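Task: fold both queries, return tokens.
Query 1:
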Amino acid sequence: MAIVSVPVPYAGKWYFESLLRGLRAGAAAHGHELEVWVEPPGPAARQHVAARLEAQLARPEYVGAVAVHFRLQGEQVERVTRPGKPVVLIGGRSDGLPTVRLDDAAIARDATQHLIDLGHRQIAHLAGLVTAPDDITIRADRVRGYSEAMSAAGLEMQAAVRASSFELADATAAAMSLLSGDDRPTAVFAVVDEVAYGVLEAARRLGLAVPRDVSVIGVDDHEAAAAAGLTTMRQDPAAVGRAAAARLLGETADDDQVVPAELVLRTSTAPPRNGSGGRDRPGLLGRLLRRVAVERSTART
């Protein structure tokens, strides 16, 4: 059986597992199987990915590769294309390689605009880590989209962008700091749903009601988002995987395929209330729903 090599930066997370499910189905339709391997994020990650793919694709049993959130560029592209087999990227853009991606800037603009349309003027963005190689395009593009929406609305952004990893503990700590001051925002746009769960948990600990005291919106429609009542920009990772398989195997010819996302309205966003600095405790049902979401997210991390 022919093999498709698939380097990923993380294993066991909802997004990557969903994406691989779609990619595996697309490859299986052609009688191919995936060889999924983890290259942990770090300064040399892309070089390691390029070297391993170059060696694998020189072997006859490998028919191609899909690199997930590794932006191969320049000399790295030359190395992986040298064996003459197709290589497709998921996430971001790269010189000379076909890509399947989200329009992260547009997603961030739409998420931020939703909060603006509700009447929020103090909107913070809890972003990813700028130093993470697998995350840098997501962070930069979503910060840009957020900034464009805020600027178009004439809103200030002083100290409004905070960094966080995608881990629940880190996101909760960052959100605790963000929401603890007297000048806390009335709304938070989180770079992904897993970071949004940290905002929900921080609000619970601080006795803030969501959405009465702070509105929260994320990106992904993670498997626990509905239980948490989280408003989000829904994407379909399995569809991304299927699209990448189709491009790799010659079913499509688009070298820059943008997969759509849509706004899903739930109970975590609402217009800001007058005197929104209050600290009334959230209701019991809201606390239980959010706790379930946090526990489920932690169990799958």
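Query 1 returned. Query 2:
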Amino acid sequence: MSVAAVVVSYNRVDLLRKCLTGLRNQDRQPDEIILIDNGSTDASVAMVRQEFPAVSVYETGANLGGAGGFAWGIERALAAGHDAAWLMDDDAEPLPGSLRPLVEAMEGAPSRPGFVASLVVNPAGEPNKGHLPDQSSDIGRQLKASALGGVAVDSASFVGVLIDLKAAASMPLPYADFFIWFDDAEYTRRLSRGAYGVVLPQSRISHPEKQNQKDMGGRLYYFIRNNLWFHRLDPSPRTLLHNPVRWGAGMAATAIVQGLRASDRRLWLTSTFKGLTEGLFRTPRTIWPGQLLNESVRIGR
């Protein structure tokens, strides 16, 4: 099985160096490392070309966010003919021996999972609370995952998730319009819906704990809009369409707390209003594999 590691990077040259070093030190190395650089201005690309000349570098020319970067990464992995893609941000550090069990599980499964993910840990080696996967309640999926030595999950973050590119070729790319937040959960949920998803504890990838953002500022717009998009796009019974009161109460509480913490009340108000209106009355563009490469769809500037 041919595997591409896909790394999305933006202005974090020191963390990127650690990430690429971790990939280079794997006992089962990726067949290709694809770096999607989102318009970095900190000499990241120059560092990669000097220190990691084997890495395939693609420069987007603009900051497309994690969502746009991973859409491009999967597009290029598919075009290169790989069977699977191991996705991660530049602040992820694959620990030794992390890729091999993922590949062996995907290759050896009687029915191939949509994705097999590493367990995300913090620098202390404990499960990372900001990247806990969404455990599946389906007993049949749990039995399949257990046979592979893992736990069945419905979604995972883009931090060390190995996706089946055959499944990816049959569905739209990650929604680039999300920009940040919820794009990974939405995409991996699609992959697991047609098959199942697995987390393997024996494969580990280190990632800093998420910092609690007391004041989201303008990012509140993405949080509200993408949360609404995420639930609208999910046909499962757990979505807001089946429990709009609970979701609305949760969003209202988040907006109120953010309003109390906001250093710029006007920005808070416009972010909340824009997030709600776009989340309710717009949908992200659907981009199919191949459309980015043939330029029938463009993202960013």
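Both queries returned. Flag for query 2: DSSP finds ten helices and ten strands in the chain.
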